[in-house]
Design goal:
By secondary structure, this protein is an alpha/beta fold. 42% of the residues lie in helices and 15% in strands. Strand 2 (37-42), helix 3 and strand 3 form a beta-alpha-beta unit. It is globular and about 45 Å long. The mean pLDDT is 96.
């Protein structure tokens, strides 16, 4: 049985004061906290503060980063390594987000290098894949997502244990637009991703890898999305900035 996984992606938002407010106001019952995994992925500047303050005040929330560079050290001005992330207490890291792919021209192969570096360093990668509206309308969603999965994840199947990674399906057309894939659309793609993991890695890996939905999950649709057998959680954007909204999302009704 895969443990539900709710991850917030704060993107380029948040200061120590807003992080403190969130930590103080996020609430999840002890019973649900045992059954769910809750992570906030935040800007690098907040990781040390959250690790210290959040670890004491609201330890149910684990912390993650939003990016990493695949090299261990060197002349890469402005970048951050896996060891630097570990130094802050980060246990997870988002890679392959559509905004990184689009704005910074990150390829599947580069995402794969990041995944390998994170796995080697003991940080869990949250690998994002997803199609544009144009690609969906052309009917090539599975072709696009299949290629991303093959080159970003499955390419390492012979050399890495992939059973502990997290995959996030984020239809690009539903990120920050107010549009949301129907639960049936989201389930269809998440089921396809699991079938590819099964076909190309192993049934055991496919059964253990958690697949998240990452397109405008919010309190109003979380229960329906989480009722689907291949959706194991969410990668939540805007709604994760609000402690009350994210508390409700983490406490979805089964």
């Amino acid at each position: 049985m895969r443990k539900p996984f709710m991850a917030g992606n704060w993107k380029m938002n948040g200061t120590k004061s807003t992080a403190k407010e969130f930590i103080d106001n996020f609430s999840l019952s002890a019973e649900l906290a045992e059954k769910r995994q809750v992570v906030i992925c935040m800007p690098f500047t907040l990781l040390p503060f959250w690790s210290e303050y959040g670890g004491e005040k609201n330890p149910v929330i684990e912390i993650g980063a939003e990016n990493v560079y695949p090299e261990p050290k060197g002349a890469y001005t402005g970048e951050i390594s896996v060891d630097m992330l570990k130094d802050t207490g980060a246990a997870y890291c988002i890679i392959g987000h559509s905004e990184r792919r689009e704005y910074f021209s990150e390829s599947d192969e580069f995402v794969n290098r990041k995944m390998n570096a994170l796995l080697d360093g003991g940080i869990v990668p949250i690998v994002c894949v997803g199609e544009t509206l144009e690609e969906r309308e052309k009917g090539i969603t599975q072709q696009v997502v299949g290629k991303q999965i093959a080159q970003s994840v499955i390419a390492s199947a012979g050399e890495k244990d992939l059973s502990g990674i997290v995959v996030a399906y984020e239809p690009i057309w539903a990120i920050g637009t107010g549009k949301t894939a129907t639960s049936e659309q989201a389930e269809e793609v998440c089921a396809f991703i699991r079938s590819e993991l099964d076909r190309c890695i192993s049934t055991a890996a496919a059964d253990s890898i958690r697949i998240l939905y990452g397109g405008s999950m919010k309190p109003a649709n979380v229960d329906e999305l989480m009722s689907k057998p291949n959706i194991d959680g969410g990668l939540v954007g805007g709604a994760s900035l609000n402690a009350a909204d994210f508390s409700r999302i983490a406490a979805f009704e089964e």
